[in-house]
Amino acid sequence: MNDFAKTGATLGAAVLLTLLAMLMKPGEVRLDLFSDQGEEFFPGFVDGNKIAELELTAYRLESSSIYAFGVKRDAKGVWTIPSHGDYPADAADQMGKAASMLIGLKKESVVGDSKGNHADYDVIDPLAGGVETAGRGTRVKLKDSAGNVLADLIVGKEVEGKDGTYYCRLPEGKRVYKAKLTGSLSTQFTDWIETDLLKAQSFNISKVTFDNYSVDEDKGQIVPGEKFVLAKGADNKFVLEGLDPAKEQTNEEKANEIGTTLGEIKIVGVRQKPQGLTARLERANSRDAQLLSRYLNPKGFFLAGGGKLVSNEGDLLFETKSGVRYTLRFGELVLGEGDEVTAGIGSEAPKEGEDPKKNANNRYLMVTVEFDESLLEKPTGVRLSADELKKRKDARSMIESIQAALATYATANEGKLPATLADLTVKPAEGEPLLAELAADPWGNQYEFVPTGETYVLISHAADGAAGGEGANQDVRSDQLPLEDALAKAATEWTTYDGKVKAGQEEAENLTKRFGPWYYVIDKTLFGKLKPTRADLVQPKAEEPKPGDAPK
Fold first, then answer.
1. CB of 72 within 8 A of CB of 143?
2. CA of residue 511 relative to chain centroid, distance
3. Using H for helix, E for strand and C for coil, what is the string for 441-455?
């Protein structure tokens, strides 16, 4: 490049800088403003499996308060929600979203780095001091199991006209960027948990009992109320017990709605049970009853005789074909909204002069479960051990072998039978004996051979070695071999039954572990569907068609 060209280039650069300086507002743009544009926010964060804690912090203008929502993974790998008493979180999907959102996230373009403009983009730190309320963003922080920060970002408003692109800022810096965020992270409690409370399925419900007692709080007495039962018959349809068959029939639509609703109950909020209340909702002896009552009574639950819990809205019990019985105890309406409902954070008291039940859309619920073997249909056949069944099978097999040898002997001897079974082991002049040996039966006894003319019976006297008997002592007889098939079928039925018992016990145990530490907040609309009157479940009996009537 010649001197002229160098001079021209220098002058051109000077002119450009001068023009930029003329166009810029003081302190708004610098030449190094775009130095990190295109770089990743968190280049060291590459493995989403390292996430062990997530913190979402936002500022709520309506209440002028900071809202913090967090999820942590404990040493056993279980995710919990600290703000809700460490309630178990179903966090795999949400953590996947967090990882995909922040791993590889790039600073697509720089907006500016003037702190005074942070409010314009809603990237003020929600945890920042000061009186400013508007312009605060949502802060997302991820940590590993050692507490090291993997990512920490303040997310502001969405860029106008660019879906999925947001203004963002690193908490320790002033510079504001535009960044494309895939997906979103929820601070809603119900988005982080398994909301299906009872895990009940209508087809598996066999019986529903409505016990509509109430509690007279002034007298401290339980007032009996209407009690009725829906039970499924052989056709798997609910029938209301106690109907007048001449005039009444079950309202099948309403009865089916009950079963469906039980499967639709969703968790709205959770509360930890107070200390001194067991998983079966009985008072522990070490807990002061008055102290416990002061906690429970305002929520609609009361300690009755024997320390058991009752509720002011009665109980609903339902049984399943798995042998599990649920007891639902409904309490008072839950006041408030947001965290007041989901976690009991803040005051649940109504404002002065406000109807306490106004806008109360939820209700308390406590649940217990138990396994009751009597709810399963028990086999009626004889129950034998696997060892006894094998012995009977072996005895049958030997009897069938002896039968085959006897048939061969009779053919060779003009239809005559041998005098004793020992004759079958005698070696003939030519060939081999029909039986190599006559072994004892599986119980160590000899098989009995009872010839009667041209027929005979072969008998093993089974476990007791004596004629007749029942169960394991019942003879294995050649003329009653189908009995062995029936015993084998009964054994299969008992094995199936034992499997159902084990599965039911495990189901009840797992549900008790789930329900044990907690009680719940549910939608009061569902509660309303589960409180029918008898009149709701009954309808006039349809007239039976008369001969010759046209079908309707």
1. no
2. 8
3. CCCCCCCEEEEECCE
Q: How far apart are the first and last CA of the chain?
A: 103
Looking up tokens 């049958």 gives: 396
The model's pLDDT over 463-504, given as tens digits with 9 standing for 90+, comes to 999 999 999 999 999 999 999 999 999 999 999 999 999 999
Is the CB of residue 343 less than 8 Å from the CB of residue 83? yes
pLDDT tens, 125-138?
A: 999 887 677 899 99
User: Other CB atoms closer than 10 Å to residue 377's CB: what's the count?
Assistant: 11
Of the candidates 281, 233, 51, 22, which has an alpha carbon nearest to the alpha carbon of residue 146? 51
pLDDT, tens digit, 9 for 90 and up, residues 185-233: 888 899 999 999 999 999 999 999 999 999 988 888 899 999 999 999 9
Q: Which residues contact 192 (CB under 8 A, 6 or more apart)?
A: 71, 81, 89, 90, 91, 94, 186
User: Which of 49, 177, 53 has its CA nearest to residue 103?
Assistant: 49
Hey, what long-range contacts does 272-279 have (CB within 8 A, 24 or more apart)?
Answer: 272/85, 272/517, 272/518, 273/516, 273/517, 273/518, 273/519, 277/309, 279/368, 279/512, 279/515, 279/516, 279/517
Q: Report the alpha-carbon distance of residue 129 to residue 235 in Å, rounded.
A: 67
Residue that the structure tokens 């639709």 belong to: 264
CA distances from 267 to 338, 366, 442, 524 (A): 14, 12, 59, 11
* Other CB atoms within 10 Å distance of the CB of residue 316: 21
Q: pTM for this one? A: 0.80
Residue 220, Cβ density class (10 Å: 0-12 exposed, 13-18 middle, ≥19 buried): exposed
Which three-class secondary structure string do you get for 453-479? CCEEEEEECCCCCCCCCCHHHCCEEHH
Alpha carbon 106 to chain centroid distance? 39
Strands (E), 295-361: 301-303, 309-311, 315-320, 324-334
What pLDDT was estimated at residue 59? 84
The contacts of residue 319 (CB under 8 Å, 6+ apart) are: 205, 206, 207, 208, 325, 326, 372, 375
Q: Pseudo-torsion of CA 153, 156, 162, 163, nearest 10°? A: 80
Give the whole-angstrom CA distance, residue 418 versus residue 102: 91
Nearby residues of 305 by Cβ (< 8 Å), 6 or more positions away: none
β strands within 61-105, DSSP E: 65-73, 79-81, 87-88
CA angle 233, 239, 240 (to 5 degrees): 140
Q: What local confidence, expressed as pLDDT, does residue 334 receive?
A: 93
